[in-house]
Amino acid sequence: MPICSVHGIDLAYEVQGASGDPAVLVHGWLGNRHRWDRMLPGLAHSMQVLAYDRRGYGESTYQPRPHPVRDDAADLAGLLERLDLYPAHIIGHSYGGAVALRLAIDRPEMVRSLALHEPPFFGLLAADPATASEGEELLSAVRRWQGWVHEGLRERAAEELVDAFSTESGAWGRLSDPVRAACARTMERWAEESADPDAQAPDGAACRELLVPTLLTVGGQSPRFLHRITQDLAGLLRNHQIVELPEAGHAPQSAQPHQYVGILSTFLLERNVPVS
Asked: Which domains does the chain have, with CATH numbers?
């Protein structure tokens, strides 16, 4: 597996596809680049597609991050520079959407478009008077789970986190033992990332200045709070569209990969214009 050294850490990555614009897949919590395996071949028909393990996940090494979202965005910028794969279409899932959005804010020259699926910006709900109580309840749950992680109760925290992002009861119990174990192992990274204010709400002023085309997707089977967050995020962006995936939930790359690839391909190929 190729490794690229950036900011003193080693990032594991793979690239599929030999022609077309570069596109980058940024995974979220409790996962790694392999969460995209069912989508990579479909996107690689028409694009150069980069999937990588964020710092501390999969085969990438780890160093503490004082500002996880900004530091993850800086890691990605460094990787794209080293591989000469920019400007790129950045596709972010869950927390990966926060990283993608931060990259567009900090390094707009590297981003051709954004495609974000349900970044969990609970702070947007808390800041909206209409949903303030719901947002505060979610943030309180996050703090409770963080406490459990610090107490060594990683699997207990992972179970509640997974179940919170599903509309079907018992989502954790339907996972295989190896998957549950892998989720529990990443909970310290989750606790670090979820405590970052930039993971709870984006920089509103900076978002309002963004002109980059942005696709916001939401799963028809996802919890309704993720729909409300997506609408709040849309209110901060000047150049966006929202598309619902009716049969998908929070992880369309696993549950509905062909439908998700179709939606992304339509959005991305419309913007596959050579840079002058």
From this structure: 3-122+200-269 (3.40.50.1820)
